[in-house]
Amino acid sequence: MPYGDVMSARVRSGERRAEIVGAALEVIAERGYRGASLAAVAERVGLTQQGLLHHFPTKEALLVAVLQERDRWDAVPDQRWRVDLLASLVEYNAMRPAIIQTFCALLGESVTEGHPARAYFTERYARVRESMTAVLRAEYGDLLPSGLTPERTAPLLVAVMDGLQYQWLLDPESVDMPGAFRDFLRLLGEPVD
Fold first, then answer.
1. Distance between CA 127 and CA 119 in Å, rounded?
2. Quick one: DSSP state of residue 46?
C-alpha cells in the first residue's frame, strides 16, 4: 500500500476512534459504565459491535480511552495552574454538563470492588492532590491564612470542586457551581471578583 494510502487510513481510523469515544461518553453519561453496552455505543456511530471491537478490543479499553480524553480536555501543565484559574475551570465545567455527568458516573461506580476504573481514579486523585498542593504552596507558601498546610488543604479543595459538581448535576437551578466555588476561594483568603 502506498505511503499516502497508509496515512489516509490512519487518519480515518483516528477519526473513527474519536467518534466512538464521543459516543461512549454520551452512553456512559446516560447509563453509567455498568449500564453502557458496546452494542449501544456501536449503534450510535453506525457500527456493528464487531466493528467497534476492531478499534477497542474490550469495554475496559474503551473506558480508558474515555477517561484519557476527558483528562486531555482539562490538561494544563502544573506550573501554569494558579488558584484564580481554578475558578475558570469550574466555570468551564458548568458549560459542559454531559462531560461532568460522565465523570461523576464513572467516579461513583469506581469505588466498587473490581471496577475497571478504580485504579485510574485512585492514581488520578493522587496526582490531582499533589498538583493542588503545589498550586497552594506557590500561592501561599507553607501555610494558608487559615493556618492549614497546602497538603492538608489540597484534599479539601478537590472535594469542594467534585462535590459541587454532584450537587450542580442534581439541582442546577439551585446550585450555582461557579459562584459557590468563588465563595470557597474567599474562605481561602482569595480576592474574588
1. 12
2. T
pLDDT in tens, 57-106: 888 889 888 888 877 766 555 556 678 788 888 998 899 888 888 888 88
Cell 501554569, residue located: 80
- DSSP letter at 98? H
- The answer to whether the beta carbons of residues 181 and 90 sit under 8 Å apart is yes
Question: For residues 149 and 188, what is the distance between their CA atoms, to the nearest angstrom?
Answer: 12
Find cell 455505543 and name the residue. Answer: 41
Taking residue 186's Cβ as centre, other Cβ atoms within 10 Å add up to 11
Q: What angle do CA 65, 47, 13 make, to 5 degrees?
A: 50
Cβ–Cβ contacts within 10 Å for residue 137, how many? 17
What is the chain's Cα-based Rg? 19
Taking the model in full, what pTM does it have? 0.74
What H or E segment, with its residue span, contains residue 173?
Answer: none
- The cell for 101 is 455527568
Cβ atoms of 27 and 40 closer than 8 Å: yes
